[in-house]
Amino acid sequence: MGILIYTDGGCSGNPGPGAWAYVILEAKNTKIIAEKWGSHMSTTNNRMELSAAIAALEALTDLDASHGNVTVYTDSQYVQKGINIWIHTWKKNDWKTSDKKPVKNMDLWQRLDDLAGTFLLTWKWVKGHAGNEYNERCDRMTQEAIASLTGCLF
Fold it and tell me: Quick check: 119 and 60 in contact, CB under 8 A?
């Protein structure tokens, strides 16, 4: 069985109140098997994008199913490029960037790396706000979660 995961994160201000969301589906019939959102009063957009991916993989772990191939869709090039390209160099350089500074959001990158190592994952970028049903669903959940903190729907 293959799994599709869609994730999104965002903030009202950066930093500011933020939220993340994910939807997990069976690839064969696109049946939703899990979805969730979370929020934080003061955070950044990148932390919320990473938190969405982490929460989704934690949920997948808890589902106790034979997952097979898992495709994670994110509208964050920061997450997609980070996990596919940049992380290998960061790890080789003891979690330092090319200019010898600590990697931003290292705690979340390390957690995502640990979780990603337990699955056969493909990470794909999807254009945000472009009509993809499940990306849009995650975006709506994220915006509603931010609104629950701020009292203002964007």
Answer: yes
**What is the pLDDT at residue 50?**
98
pTM here?
0.94
- Rounded to whole angstroms, how far apart are CA atoms 81 and 84? 5
Structural domains of the chain sorted by starting position, each given as residue range(s) with its CATH number in brackets: 3-150 (3.30.420.10)
CA torsion angle for 120, 128, 109, 103 (degrees, to 10)?
140
Helices and strands (DSSP H and E) totals, the chain: 5, 5
pLDDT tens track for 9-39: 999 999 999 999 999 999 999 999 999 999 9
Residue 48 · residue 11 · CB < 8 Å: yes
Structure tokens at 135: 């990306």
User: Known catalytic residues?
Assistant: 8-9, 49, 75, 129, 139
Listed in sequence order, the residues at least 6 apart from 120 whose beta carbon sits closer than 8 Å to its beta carbon are 67, 68, 69, 70
Q: Which two tokens stand for residue 142?
A: 């994220």
**CA distances (Å), 14 to each of 11, 94, 107, 139, in order?**
6, 27, 19, 17
